[in-house]
Amino acid sequence: MKTRSTNLRVKLPVFVVVIEVIFVALYAAFVTYDEHTDARFQTNKTNPMDNAMYKDYPFFIDIQVMIFLGFGCLLAFFRLYGFGGMVFNFLMATFAIQWAILVQGYFQFCHDGKIHLGVINLINAEFACAVVLISFGAVLGKTSPLQLLVMALLEVPVFAVTEWAVLKYLRINDSGGSILIHLFACYFGLGVTFVLYRPHLNKNHAKENTTYQSDILSVMGTLFLWVFWPSFNSALTLKGDDQHRAILHTFIGLSASTLTAFALSVMLNKNGKITMADVQNVTLAGGVTVGASVDMMISPAAAYALGMMGCTACMLGYKYLSPFLARHLKIQDQCGIHNLHGLTGLISCIAGICAILMANEEVYGPSLYDLFANRAPVKGDPKLKELQMLIPSLQPGLGRTAKEQALFQVAAMFSTIGASALGGILTGFVLKLPYLASPSDDFCFDDEPFFDVPPPLKPINTIIAEDSTA
């Protein structure tokens, strides 16, 4: 039964080949170069150093490290599921980026009939990929690779449509992705795991544990994510002082959450010792909690306080909320994404709303209307001409007040949570289809159903003893 239910010899190759054929056709028909990659736009007056690659590629490669090394190593903490955590992350990330280029590019295609591809498009696709990988954490160890590919196939369009609708109609400020990345990914993943609920996994599954080596590998993933998170939060901010603030605030928030995590880990451990799961996850909370206000003039002290608050909420969530959700609400969140991305994302959104309400010309000067573009005067307003004398690149805005912008932020929070949760629930029902090779309860958190697993290494004492006998 086990072999028949998880055998992918036909299913996975057929799915992948069909998808690749479709992708080749779509790329051939609709994807072309943008003006920074198309040779036809280059002349003898073109300065190669003005190419967008030089300002965008460093952020692209930093986020690549986060996606493939950071997430990959972080998810390899189960003792018998190291292959699954890292390799399925690799598989999903590669697929999700390819798919996101097409799906996100659709809205560009509707405008001019082509998808113009450059490094900035890859960065946007990486953010969509990050959404998928965060959601993956909720179902880690209890899904087949075919289920995960189908999940990515469905999640990317739901994310892209939600992102497009929120940015086009609600016009929010969300540079660090607290709403459109962290909240969306969290509640989509929770929706999926709610439908895929397995009651027997609430009874301390024998394979749902770690080893010394797997915990070290997972901490390596945490370190990759920690080091490169400033690039993640600042990649799409306005160049200059806004981006500079985003980098500083992210580092300060991460630093505060790290110190707080060690203190709380020892305090909440009945033996007064550090828990590795806290180091692997809770230390990252500050990177999320500063996200919504990361490029605003919130002050370094506020960034520090947000890091501490996010860490505290995340830690208490892991200790008390996750078990409650699993026992009473049928939400088995394997990696605690609700704590690291949901709770901290909500705190970040509230902080962002407060920062928007307090933003004024006294603090920001004329650049207020550059950062908060929707608060810029409407076309024809005499004040717009005055501001354009100071900031020539300033575009007409919507003339919103601070309170109006804050209300749109609230609307974006609730609409994103609703859309993602509904999308996750519907995706969960699709993943329950029997031919997607879901592993049985006994083989959850185990590489055996999907990998050729080598025999375990023998302890060094056993090798020495065998050599001596020989």
UniProtKB/TrEMBL annotation:
Keywords: Ammonia transport, Cell membrane, Glycoprotein, Membrane, Transmembrane, Transmembrane helix, Transport
Domain Ammonium transporter AmtB-like: 23-433
InterPro entries: Ammonium/urea_transptr, NH4_transpt_AmtB-like_dom, RhesusRHD
Protein name: Ammonium transporter AmtB-like domain-containing protein
Single Gene Ontology MF annotation: ammonium channel activity
Organism in which the protein naturally occurs: Monopterus albus (Swamp eel)
Any GO BP annotation: ammonium homeostasis
PANTHER family: AMMONIUM TRANSPORTER, AMMONIUM TRANSPORTER AMTB-LIKE DOMAIN-CONTAINING PROTEIN
Localization, UniProt: Cell membrane
Gene Ontology terms: cellular component: plasma membrane
Organism lineage: Eukaryota, Metazoa, Chordata, Craniata, Vertebrata
Domain of life: Eukaryota
Claim: Cell membrane is one of the keywords in the record: yes
Function statement: Functions as an ammonia transporter. May play a role in the elimination of ammonia in the gill.
Membrane-spanning residues: 12-33, 59-81, 87-107, 119-140, 146-167, 179-197, 217-236, 248-268, 301-321, 342-359, 406-431
Stated family: Belongs to the ammonium transporter (TC 2.A.49) family. Rh subfamily.
